[in-house]
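Follow-up to my post from last week.
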Amino acid sequence: MEQVINIAANDLMSHAERFDAKIEEDKKIEPTEWMPEAYRKHLVRQISQHAHSEVIGMQPEGNWITRAPSLRAKQILLAKIQDEGGHGLYLYSAAETLGVSRAEMIEQLHLGKAKYSNIFNYPTLTWADIGAIGWLVDGAAIVNQVSLQRTSYGPYSRAMVRICKEESFHQRQGYEIMANMMKGIKEQREMAQDAMNRWWWPSLMMFGPHDSASPHFSDAFHWKIKRQSNDELRQKFIDKTVQQAEVIGLSIPDKNLKWNETRQHYDTGSIDWEEFYRVINGNGPCNKQRMQHHIKVHEEGMWVRDAAEAYKNKQNNKN
Amino acid sequence: MATDTQLDLWEVFIQNKSGNHYMHAGSVHASDKKMAIQNARDTYTRRSEGSSIWVVPSAAIVASNPSDGDMLFDPSNDKIYRHPTFYIMPEGAKNI
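User reply:
Got it. Predicted complex:
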């Protein structure tokens, strides 16, 4: 995007002062504006990681398209996975406004320099896992994304608004799968509970380390990129999910889970951060598979992009 | 720098229903106009959000800088007589 000459360049207020004032006033920062380099870097890291998560997240669900138990379930799953691809595109666009290209972001992912959400390194073993992903994983993502609608960077905030509108269908379809299985035969109920047992803790880990241990915490807060802390968001998710589990008869796999009357929140057992770091550092059940698949598809699609470019050049030469 | 191209960048404007303004929705990658329209449809109108789409090569867009806003829009700030509420209407006059 071209920009007309900065007519306010000689204004008395420095770029940094003007930026700080805008953040202070809760105004959005737009791509053409001056921003501190560290702010830009933080956003590129966070938004590209978010985009990669949406795209990698298509894999565990894609695993069940051909085995969905009904045509209805299959149509819904296809639509949901298509949404996730769309969400990845909204986010890549938002990151591109910061001056990083999509090719660079994908390269960073393939080199292992950019991360994606840890949750997608777990396998989808049964149909109930599709229910658990929609209900718990998307449910956790929504809590985070609703909060990010108020993030200070305009394009990121607008992408979040659009994504939140679409995500609520994702969570409801997942909860419906779980509810239906809980109304089924004993094996189905066990399958649903098993999925709950495997996805509950990784879902809580999605919010990231405790506030006391989060490395990017203070900058992100100061610049209003992040509006609520990891622990606040995690608590919000726990508080609303426990009731939903009770309604359909699923139990939460945490013997220390207890309503705290004074805090007006649920208390929980402690999260196994060793597992979190083991998986995030590449040793989860599906890390290798996820990345290999992404690289393979990217390389196999190369000829399509090349053909599109060749066609464009041919058309341009005609004119 | 990554080697392969991700095609050109286009800005997408959607009209949600006939008669309304086209609003900026976001951007897509595409190698030509037709692909840009199709990608815009798949990316931004999966739930019938649009009745029509414009796509514009991002490089063709010229933007002002939001922090220049005060100066850029200053000429109109002191012309309140451009608003109908500036004028005092005689008591009792109707339909004006």
